[in-house]
Write a structure and sequence with these properties.
α2 packs antiparallel against α10. The chain has 2 domains: 171 residues, D-Maltodextrin-Binding Protein, domain 2; 135 residues, 3-Layer(aba) Sandwich (D-Maltodextrin-Binding Protein, domain 2). It is built from 13 helices and 11 strands. It is α/β, with parallel strands linked by helices. The relative contact order is 0.16.
């Protein structure tokens, strides 16, 4: 065993004290961020955020500590957005739909049949238009960090298979908190009921609503298929998810930390997308195995045609009309 001499012991102790000091200095500097998601811990959006948290922790030696509150612990999407604007939640992952009433530009992504495919959507989100939409949040108290995928949403209900808009006549359909979604259902002949995702199962079971619309993973893991066993692959809208931060909190951070957060959010996108693609397939298979009545040979044209007045109404602002034209032009 090595015996230290006195000067060596002094220098060791000084080193320990200094590192002790730096540990406590570091603890003081720790930036604790709280992030919200309505989905469960193993859902691709939450796992995407978890990879963001991991990267931030690694790159800052634990100084930036992002804690995720999943499963709707901090409220539904509309609530978490409003709380984030006032600085009560630092980051929230929500669909862009509940942002439509706060940031008009985001409404464009809620327009039905806008994106031609997943590839088209990803290209738009990853390019200058995506950055433009993320930046449009800033005057409204939010910082757009990144987009996650939410696939295509389709109609499901408790009554009968939907083949055409006429099959939806008079149906009470739950939608997210977005006027565009309300008007979309009206244009298809149904009655829209906006509510949070967490209330949908019970409302379907009780018959307060007849149906809803969502992608395969949300339809499956929420177990809505147990009470609404008719799923029609209408793929009427591909509204992305947004990873957004409270601007109030953002402005308290240094430029370096802002960059680290932005980069970690962007770097989590490919991670999320890989998980998402696998999850869509797994959920679709689980739904088929559960014996859900699936209509997957829908003629989309009558649904597309029914959306013309909606486009007219929402694109009165030339800037929004131009945005849609630019999105369509992306090859
Ligand atoms: C999911 C989406 C959620 C939420 C939910 C809903 O597909 O990931 O952000 O929008 O749908 O319908 O409320």
């Amino acid at each position: 065993m090595r015996i230290f001499n006195r000067p060596e012991i002094y220098s060791l102790l000084t080193g320990l004290c200094l590192s002790g000091l730096s540990v406590s200095a570091m603890a003081e500097d720790t930036i604790n961020l709280r992030a919200a998601d309505i989905h469960d811990a193993d859902y691709p959006t939450v796992r995407g955020m978890a990879s963001m948290a991991e990267q931030l922790s690694e790159e800052t030696n634990g100084r930036i500590n992002l804690k995720i509150y999943s499963g709707g612990q901090l409220g539904d999407e509309k609530d978490t957005l409003e709380i984030a604007i006032f600085g009560g939640i630092d980051i929230t992952r929500t669909s862009l739909a509940p942002l439509n009433s706060i940031v008009p530009e985001t409404g464009v992504f809620s327009l039905p049949f806008l994106f031609r495919s997943t590839e088209h959507m990803r290209k738009v989100l990853d390019g200058p238009i995506g950055d433009e939409i993320l930046a449009s949040l800033e005057p409204h108290g939010l910082i757009g960090l990144a987009f996650y995928d939410a696939g295509a949403r389709s109609m499901y209900n408790t009554k009968h298979p939907i083949h055409t808009p006429a099959d939806m006549e008079g149906m009470k359909i739950r939608v997210m908190n977005s006027n565009i979604f309300v008007d979309m259902i009206a244009a298809l002949g149904g009655n829209a009921t906006p509510m949070g995702f967490g209330q949908v199962y019970e409302s379907l079971a009780l018959g307060t609503i007849d149906g809803a619309e969502n992608n395969w993973p949300s339809f499956e893991y929420s177990r809505h298929f147990e009470v609404a066993p008719f799923y029609s692959v209408t793929q009427h809208v591909m509204v992305p998810e947004g990873l957004v931060m409270s601007r109030y909190r953002w402005e308290q951070l240094s430029d370096e930390d802002q960059q680290l957060i932005r980069k970690a959010a962007k770097d989590s996108v490919p991670v999320m997308r890989r998980l998402w693609d696998a999850r869509v397939e797994a959920s679709r298979e689980a739904i088929i195995a559960a014996g859900v009545n699936i209509v997957d040979d829908i003629d989309k044209q009558p649904f597309i045609d029914a959306m013309a007045p909606l486009y007219e109404e929402y694109l009165q602002d030339p800037a929004l009309r131009n945005l849609v034209e630019r999105i369509r032009a992306v090859q």
